[in-house]
Design brief:
Blueprint lengths: L2 H24 L4 H5 L9 H21 L12 H4 L14 H20 L22 H27 L7
């Protein structure tokens, strides 16, 4: 096995595990529970899924790594966003099922992008204010998204326990 194959397998396995953790953490919640803020910061579980879709999968893989336009990013609306970034917003009339489906679709597109590139592929669309050494290649972007998704999976675990007492992992 080529060392890059092992690294790719490890990175993708870790990312897939965290994506699955996110979907498991929201499984079985009602629409009302998905929309209700669980922590004092005011974010809802479905808002976090929207963030992982737009600010995670689409931004990092579709835009930064694949160079696709950022035309999906919602405009800021302080009255609606209550101090959170716009990529956490889920409109009251949006279906929570549609938001979850959007996350799954973004993952599918991300996986196709990742599969088509070597781990050392340089992102064609880095942010202009990033230091030269930041996010130099697909491997670095994968690590970033794994860490971010893992962190948010832990947030969802805490939220889920507060919502209905369900614990993901009890030691």
């Amino acid at each position: 096995m080529h060392p890059d194959d092992r690294s790719r397998s490890l990175l993708l396995g870790a990312l897939d595990a965290q994506r699955s953790h996110i979907l498991t953490a929201i499984d079985g919640l009602t629409d009302e529970q998905l929309r209700t803020p669980a922590l004092p910061s005011g974010w809802s579980p479905i808002g976090l899924v929207r963030h992982l879709t737009l600010g995670g999968e689409r931004f990092w893989f579709h835009t930064v790594v694949a160079g696709e336009p950022l035309d999906y990013w919602p405009g800021d609306d302080p009255a609606l966003d209550e101090g959170r970034p716009a990529d956490w917003r889920v409109a009251p009339d949006e279906s929570t099922d549609a938001v979850v489906r959007e996350y799954r679709d973004a993952i599918e597109r991300s996986d196709a992008i990742i599969a088509a590139l070597p781990l050392d592929a340089r992102p064609p669309r880095p942010e202009p204010d990033w230091p030269d050494h930041a996010f130099q290649d697909l491997a670095a972007v994968l690590m970033h998204v794994i860490i971010d998704t893992s962190t948010h999976a832990g947030h969802l675990d805490a939220a889920r326990e507060l919502i209905d007492g369900r614990q993901h992992l009890v030691l």
